[in-house]
Design goal:
This protein is mainly alpha-helical and 315 residues long. It is built from eight helices and four strands. The protein has a domain of 187 residues: Ferritin. Helix 2 packs parallel to helix 6, helix 3 packs parallel to helix 5 and helix 5 packs antiparallel against helix 6. The longest helix has 30 residues.
């Protein structure tokens, strides 16, 4: 079922923030060596910070740069009048995940290309299981650093193809970049749950460097193979998050409160827990599975992505 999350968005108010123009810019004179930084604060926030000593996690370290160019940041408020605190995503980008999606669907590999894609993903699972074992928080964090790459690479290459050929993309640029952004938000969420240590960060750098270039080359050679492989990768992600849920239900992993970023991004209840987060992330992966297998099927039928409208907003 396609759930276009743009149809039911929360109401927000947007206003340009006041930006003071220093005297050094009056008269069109630009002295960049004297530009200053101004931290964005409100009276309520100042009181909160002074009383609790805790900074707003959404705008942690956010500073407004006073610039000659006059680019003014937006002040966004939610329905209840409170200020929207996230700069990495906006209220109109949030949605409620479709938890009714079929998690058991599987594409049976029949062609040589499908089998190669299937066993490539299976071979990657063995070292992952060996390294992370049952540390599913760290495993999810590592998984999302990889899962966010294909959408970006695919969207970039479809974008370049659209430019070269002077043609529309059928919405696939937006759909693929939307997938990449969604996977990145998964990472931002799990970073609040499992803090990466130095060697895990080093591993991310190495894996991302290898996987990005390998997938880039693979997509250039065969988009149908690339999308099929991502479809199987998402199937493995569904399995991993199902195991994560089992560990939570068995009490082997503490079911801590959901991070604030997850509550706002997926419009969860205020008392949502880590289990609720894993549920919505797993649903997201199932949707990415469908989109990538669908994209591969389009290529297998001798068509191009632009010939089939992209499932934009499919969550």
């Amino acid at each position: 079922m396609i759930n276009f999350h743009l149809l039911n968005q929360p109401k927000v108010t947007i206003a340009a923030a006041n930006v003071r123009v220093p005297a050094m810019m009056i008269g069109g004179v630009r002295n960049f060596s004297k530009m200053t930084f101004e931290k964005k604060t409100t009276e309520n926030q100042s009181k909160k910070d002074s009383s609790s000593g805790e900074a707003d996690q959404g705008n942690k370290g956010e500073q407004l740069i006073v610039s000659y160019w006059g680019v003014k940041p937006m002040k966004i408020t939610k329905d209840d009048g409170t200020e929207w605190k996230w700069s990495c995503f906006r209220p109109w980008e949030t949605y409620k995940a479709d938890l009714t999606i079929d998690l058991k669907k599987h594409h049976l590999p029949s062609t040589l290309s499908d089998k190669l894609a299937y066993w490539t993903v299976k071979s990657l699972r063995w070292p992952t299981d060996l390294f992370f074992q049952r540390r599913y928080g760290c495993r999810a964090m590592m998984l999302e650093t990889v899962a966010a790459v294909p959408g970006m690479v695919g969207g970039m290459l479809v974008h370049c193809k659209s430019l070269r050929r002077f043609e529309q993309s059928g919405g696939w640029i937006k759909a693929l970049l939307e997938e990449a952004e969604n996977e990145r938000m998964h990472l931002m969420t799990f970073m609040e749950v499992a803090k990466p240590n130095w060697y895990e960060r080093a591993l991310v750098i190495a894996v991302q460097g290898i996987f990005f270039n390998a997938y880039f080359l693979g997509y250039l050679i065969s988009p149908k193979f690339a999308h099929r492989m991502v479809g199987y990768l998402e199937e493995e992600a569904i399995h991993s998050y199902t195991e994560f849920l089992k560990e939570l239900d068995n009490g082997n992993i503490e079911n801590v409160p959901a991070p604030a970023i997850a509550i706002d991004y997926w419009r969860l209840e205020a008392n949502a827990t880590l289990r609720d987060v894993v549920m919505v992330v797993r649903a997201d992966e199932a949707h990415h599975r469908d989109v990538n297998h669908y994209a591969s099927d389009i290529h297998y039928q001798g068509r191009e992505l632009k010939e089939a409208p992209a499932p934009i907003g499919y969550h």
